[in-house]
Amino acid sequence: MTEEQELGITESKSHATGDWYAEVVQKAGLANYGPEGMSGFIVTRPRAYALWESIQNFLDTKFSNTGVQNAYFPMFIPESYLEREKDIVEGFDPEVAWVTEAGHEELEERLAVRPTSESIIAPYMSQWVRSHRDLPLRVNQWCSVVRWEATETKPFFRTKEFLWQEGHTAHESDEEAWEETMTRLDQYESVYEDHLAIPVLRGQKPEHDKFPGAKVTTTVEALMPDGKSVQGGTSHHLGQSFAEAFDLTYTTEAEEEEVAHTTSWGLSWRALGALIMTHSDEQGLVLPPTVAPTQVVIVPIWQADTKEKVLEYAEEVADDVEAAGISVELDDRDERNPGFKFNEHELNGIPLRIEIGPNEVDDEELTLVHRPDGESIVEDREDTAETVQTHLDEVFAKLYADAEENLDGEVREADDRADILGTLGQHGGYVKTPWCGDEDCEEEIKDQIAAEIVMVPFEDEDDLVDADHDETCGVCGEAAERTAYFAKSY
What we know:
This protein starts with a helix and ends with a strand. α3 (about 45-65) crosses α7. By secondary structure, it is of the alpha+beta class. It contains 15 helices and 23 strands. The strands form six sheets. The chain has a seven-stranded mixed beta sheet, sandwiched between helices. Strands 16-15-17-18-19 form a five-stranded mixed beta sheet, with helices on both faces. A four-stranded mixed beta sheet has the order 20-21-23-22. It is globular, with a radius of gyration of 26 Å. β12 and β13 form a beta hairpin. It has helices spanning about 5, 15-25, 45-65, 80-85, 85-90, 120-130, 175-195, 240-245, 270-280, 305-325, 340-345, 360-365, 385-410, 415-425, 440-450; strands at about 30-35, 40-45, 70, 75-80, 95-100, 105-115, 135-145, 160-170, 200-205, 215-225, 230-240, 250, 255-260, 260-270, 295-300, 330, 350-355, 365-370, 375-380, 410-415, 430-435, 450-455, 480-485.
């Protein structure tokens, strides 16, 4: 097998999405599977970690601008801490990994490898809050968590250990906690739409699918090209349940003791899975320029008699692009031909390629090639940085438009059980239907076609709420109370 063949993607995105995805992840140098005997763990390679750092930087700026400070808490949680919030114990018990020994000694108390950190963070927040002057308190940590999932794993989408951030806040009132919840949901929507070029739907989880112990769980949902939904990030209004369990109280101005209202919110590297699957193609990885570690690659094309002038011109162009704060690579390798370089950089997802040969030098021009669709445009050399930035913006717009078109075409309405099942079975995507609010109706669909309610619109966006209507539940036929979005999901 030649090196060019080894670079190529052999699986079909439309016909073998899972195999195609795994091939892109490995051939684009994003991840390796973990050691034998450790199914569900991956090694994150530098290119993928750079993508994660880009998301971190984007969100950290937003967090910092809205009063959040980063901190770090132990990865081990005493069992007694978990048990103080019964819903956490019940909700995560099947997924918790336990440490029972240290060296040759058996521990007096089992330690959970954190599946989430409310039970270790809330006790310390309760120590830091004494009066209303200490509120609101906002902390966030970037860390990994472990959930010993029994289901099929997939790099970034579902692994037993994954990277994420989790924010935790405490407030004086329920209204302030709800406002905080929505602020973080807005920021998650922004990281997908403004940074990853992925449009999302937003709403809340049904009552039976909330985060354990939460009052309300809100979500952003992204649709993948294979018709499955990805829970892109969740923000939880926890009410007072965690504060009561961990004695998180404060003294009011009237010197009365009150229980705080708390939130938690998290986004994981599942966002990387959504990024890879949404934009990539059968040539390899495709990245929006906002997140790409290398935004531009310059490929000089020369013969022996033109090498010197082509390289000199290419270096000048690279300097101009770099001076504008755009990350650029000049690929002047002698041992690789231009075709190999094109294939390699396409596989690695570099958004924009600039080709420079003798003709470009003589005419003082640049040939720019967009990664998503291969469109090639010749531009004047003048104002190189501005021209390159314009094309990077066009690449982002193309990626967003394609993803938006996919989403818009995959939201369908259904009014009865047969229509719901048939639409999901034939098309995938989202099926929007009136719903009575009974969990049994979701279970009926889930049992037959492995789809579930991934989101219900917020009450102020749901035309069934407080409306004069005769809508009936699409599953059971009883009076409908809310609108539900059914989908298969990762």
